[in-house]
Every structure is written in C-alpha cells, then in structure tokens.
Amino acid sequence: MTLTGTQAVGAHLSRIEAREKVTGTARYAFEHAPGRDIAYAAPVQAAVARGEVVSVDTGATLTLPGVIAVIWYGNAPRLGPSDDGELALFQSNWVAYRGQIVAAVVAETIETAREAAGQVRIEYRQERHDVVLRADDPTMYKPPKVAPNYPTDTERGDPDTALREAAVSVDLTYTTPAQHNNPMEPHSTVAVWEDGGLTLYDSNQGSSAVRDVLARLFELPPDRVRVIAPHVGGGFGSKLAPHPPVVLAAIAAKVTGRAVKVATTRQQMFSLVGYRTPIIQRVRLGAGRDGGLTAIIHDAFEQTSTVKEFAEQTTTPTRVMYASPNRRTTHRLTALDVPTPTFMRAPGECPGMFALESAMDELAIACGMDPIELRVRNEPALHPETGLPFSSRGLVACLREGAARFGWADRDPTPGVRRDGRRLVGTGVASSTYPVIRRPSQATARVEADGRFTVGVAAADIGTGARTVLTQIAADALRVSPDHVRVEVGDSRLPTAPIAGGSMGTASWGTAVVRACEALLAEMDRSGVRPLEVRVDTADEIASQSRLSRHAFGAQFAEVGVDMDTGEVRVSRMLGVFAVGRVINPKTARSQFIGGMTMGIGMALMEESVMDVEFGDYLNHDFAQYHIAACADVPDIEAHWIDEEDPEINPMGSKGIGEIGIVGTAAAVANAVHHATGIRVRDLPIRLDRLVR
C-alpha cells in the first residue's frame, strides 16, 4: 500500500475553524434559527423507576400563557418500528426507568416550556424496581455479543487447571462505578418539517447515522431526512447514536408545525443520553516463578436496561495484551430498571484495562518482579487468541521509552517508604491499547474553476480537529498546500460516512478522501475539464484488506502524592508514550492524548455516579457533585509517541488516537497509590475513605 506524501501530513497545522470558534461565529446545534417561527420543547420525566402512567392531567398546563401543546402517549403520533426501545417515545404508558420522558410541553419560550413542564400532573402505578448491579444476580445471562460486534466469551487451552497448578497466582475483583459522559455542549436539536421532509440541526457524532435512524422511526426515505452538525462541542460516545431528546424535537415539530428546539439540561443528561455501565470484574492470573503467564481468566459483570440491550466489551483488551497458552474471557449481563448504558470514551478498553493492568501490577509484586519487565516477558509474537500477525506492535518500545523519560530505573519498589513532607509518594505504570478500526466511507473531491479544491465527507468534527487533519490529508493527496483545499463535513447530504467514534474517524474518512483525490487527479489528467467532481466508496477496499491484527499501544506512567492525614491523592506528574503509526498533526494529537489522560485521572480519583437505591436515580447529576479533573488536577502531564511505520492500516499509515489516551491511566494512578501507601484500592474512584484507615 502506497503512503501519501509528507508536505502537509505531520505538520503542526493550527485548527482550520479556530477563528470561528474563538470569535463565537461557529454555530452549534441550538444556535440555528431556521425562520422566525421557533418554539421550544421541555420534557416531563418519570418520577418512578418502574411502572405505568395511569393518567396525564394537562389542564392547568394548557392554560398557561405561551404554551402551545402538551404531548404524551395518549396524543403523540405513532412511530415506525425500532430495535432501540428508548427511542419509542410516547408509544406506550410503560415506565422503564426513572427520568424517562413521559410527556413534553411545547411553548413559545424555553423558560415557559420548562416552567409548564413542572405543572403537568402525572399519576403512576408503581412497581418494585431493581437498580443495583450484583455479580451473583440470578438474572445474569450471556448476551449474544458484546459491543460493537465481538464474541461474548473466548477460551483457549485449560485455564482452570493451569491456574490451579501455577507457581504464582492472583484472584482479584475490581469495580468501576457508573460514569456519565458529560461533553461540554449538552445534547441539543432543532427540528423542522418542510415539504414532507425532516431537517435536524443536531449535536451528534455522525450525521449519516442519525439520518438513517430518524428516517426509519418516521418512515421516511433517507433522502427526506437531513441532519446538519457543522460544529459539535464534544461527545465522548454519548452522541454516537440518537437518544430520546432528538426524537422529542422531531415529534414536537411534527405536532405543532413549528421549528422546535430541544436542549437538555446538565441534570437531564444523567438519565437521557447514556453512561458507562458500572462493572464488576474478576481477574485471575497464573504464572511461573519467572513471571511467564500460564493462565489468564477475566470475567466481567455489567448492567443494561429493560428496553435495549447494550453489553460493553470489557474483557476484549485482555484478548490481545499478553501471551499465555491458557486463557478465558467472559461477559455477563443483567437487565435492570435503569437507563440504557452506551459507549463512553474507549468503551471496553478503558474499564477492562484498569482491572487487567492493576492485576498485572499485583502479579509483579507476587513474583518479586519489576512490573515493566513482567509485561515485556509476556509480550506475544502473534495475537494471543487468533494467531494473526500484528500489522505493528509497539508496546515494548513504549514501555522502554516511557521508563527512560520517567526515570523508572531509579524506582525503589518497596511501597510506603518515600515521603515529601506530609505526603507519601509513589509511582505506577500501566499499558494502553486500542484496536485500529476502519469502516467503509464515501467522499467527493472537486476541482473548482479557479484551481482550488473542495472535498466533501459526512464526517463529524466533535472538537478533535477532523477538518484540519482531513485538509492535510487531502492536500498531500492532491499535491497542493492546505490553503488550496476546503473540506466540508457535518451534513448528511454529503457522502455517507461512519461515526466519529472508536478512533475510526480519520482512518475511515481519510481513506475515502485520499482515494477521491487520487481519482480526481487521474480524471483531471485524462479530461482536463474544470470544474470537475468525482465520488468514491471504499467498501471494496475495506472488505479486501489483509487479515492482520491491527492495534495501537502505549504506556502510562504516574507519580502521586497522598496526604498522610487526609488521604487526599494528587497526581504530581503523568507521562504517556504511544505507538500510533504516523501522526498526522502533532498539535491536535498531543491535545487528544493529554485530554484522554486527564479524563483517565478523573476516572481514577473523582468520577462516580451514585445510585439512589430507593428512588432508582443518580443522586449527583450536575458538576457541583459529579466531579471531573480540571487543570489544577494535572500540574505536569506529557504525551509523546514513538516513530512507527505501518503501511497495512490505511493510506496515511495512521492509527486513531481519540481513545487510547484514557486507556491504562486509571490503573497507572491506582498502582502509584499502592506504591505510595501500601494500600491497594480495587474499587474506583480512589476516595479518601478508601485510604484513611
């Protein structure tokens, strides 16, 4: 496979849309105003976690000045069939979780809509609910697959016997709580029905995907639904697929004949747009005295809702990380009376690697080995389960480079002996990994009459710099400077493209952009006509790619200080080194790595959605109580990468970087906390009460 040139790829190019964003002219979903006839919809959320709506009293609400309509299951339009029960808005009176949208008010102003929503009186028939995840829950079952399409379980050899006979073994349980995505821009949509078609200005991670789902729900041809998302203020996975607020906007616009805006509040996002499931993980490792792994068993227990099945792929990273002839990974699921979990940054890899990399640290201590050397000793030559060769695998190089940069060689492995004043100091390490995924995409490339170029693809720029890197990719493919290229994204009328998620965006869209530009140059040489446009589809190329194991890898190093009196943990420095193929833009890449690592620190020390068992709802549903890491929490954080050439992954030789920065971070911090204090915390987050004893 031939790689493109390096004129633009690899340059520290600043954001193409930077001026729009800093001057406030970049329009986000809620800021669009199609015409002047704007109305606003506010949801009414269920006050019970399980039961039925018996009656809806709208009398007082409809008399309020400015109220246009109240929508509920008794008067809402019927929707088409869907495999996502959460999107079947107002289609029955059944309540599946607390916070479910059971009615909505449409009004002339957003203030009126929200005030009126509080006046709707709903009577329920309440049933007993279950909202607590337990590994021994008798309703646990084996789902047919785990997201996005991995086998639920895998097994090689005889792991149980190998574990019993291992010279050294550990049998450990780790838990991670529910976590909520919380992008800076809450979910919002403006819906307009015109000429029998639907237009949505929507905050999402893939306009093509939203178009297809809404078209099915409202039984429209896909070309009668247009989804526009030029700027998106983050998603972290919560905007990969439509959620109830999108459907609410479309229904409200259809009922009223008005353009309708819906903007979720921060509090509403804790029940309406997904979250990372709480997970219980049991990790069993067996090894010889030399540290060579003889058995790996990793079991995950998770929750889903009663309206849609979602199984996070928690143990899948264990399938690729370390060599052992005997191994088993499993997932079990229980359906509770809760909102449906969804993807959250590095789903599967993020929580799964917390457990695996913490267990590897504990095994290293049991073996009396340095944790880096334990990992190196168990480096596989081929994929441990499939036997496929790796297109490239830079884990050992990242561990070695990171150790040198971090000063690991000077580390005393004894826990609880280093002090800085009233703080105990410790260091920890963990590996990172993420699969390299590429999906079929379409793109157009056009040469204008003035010789400039326009490239179109229905990609989503969720703040990661997609416009910028696609401009660089196109410029190299066209053999021109970036200022001669304009890239159009964020509109479902552009060529169909996969979502901005799973670190597949740039690889998928970039392949299509390169092929479109190559085809355009060939056609220009042949015909000489201007303006001229070509369109490509990479489905055949993706389907025929060679069978290899394609993954990115990395190593995370953390130093922490733990207050001896209060148990307060501070991460004093963090270092990540990654093997991610060719880095298209070092400036945007470093931003992504550091952002992921910062989010991982929040996962380790702060993020925790606390369930109120009595009412079946999350207690801490705003930033006053749901804490995330901020600048003051990361005083010294560095991200580096090694040189890695991999021509087997895409024309650019690049691997996705949006997810891998968060993978392993929490384990590195937890391992550092153990090194500082001698206390092993296996239940995240690492709160004060888990250290002060």
TrEMBL record:
Signal peptide residues on this chain, from the entry's feature table: none
Protein name per Swiss-Prot or TrEMBL: Xanthine dehydrogenase
The Aldehyde oxidase/xanthine dehydrogenase a/b hammerhead domain, residue ranges: 23-128
UniProt-listed InterPro entries: Ald_Oxase/Xan_DH_a/b (IPR000674), Ald_Oxase/Xan_DH_a/b_sf (IPR036856), Ald_Oxase/xanthine_DH-like (IPR016208), AldOxase/xan_DH_MoCoBD1 (IPR008274), AldOxase/xan_DH_MoCoBD2 (IPR046867), AldOxase/xan_DH_Mopterin-bd_sf (IPR037165)
Superkingdom assignment: Bacteria
Region (Disordered): 138-158
Keyword annotations from UniProtKB, A to Z: Molybdenum, Oxidoreductase
MF terms in GO: iron ion binding; oxidoreductase activity
